[in-house]
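can u do me a favor
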């Protein structure tokens, strides 16, 4: 979870900076910086869970294949 939170902090900073440079508006940049990274952070959290589950499934499959079952 700490990895997700630090990723979110970096993402918020990048999103705000890019949005501000593109629009020149603190309000729009702030809104975009809150909405877009929030969505991506949630997606990243679930992506990590799915990625880890896939790794476990692969290891189990290889263990079964290696055992000749």
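np, heres the sequence
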């Amino acid at each position: 979870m700490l990895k997700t939170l630090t990723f979110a902090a970096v993402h918020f900073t990048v999103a705000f900076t890019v949005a501000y440079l593109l629009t020149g508006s603190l309000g729009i940049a702030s809104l975009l910086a809150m909405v877009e990274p929030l969505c991506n952070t949630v997606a990243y959290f679930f992506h990590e869970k799915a990625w880890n589950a896939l790794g476990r499934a692969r290891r189990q499959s290889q263990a079964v294949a290696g055992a000749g079952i």
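The chain is about 95% helix and 0% strand. hope that helps!!
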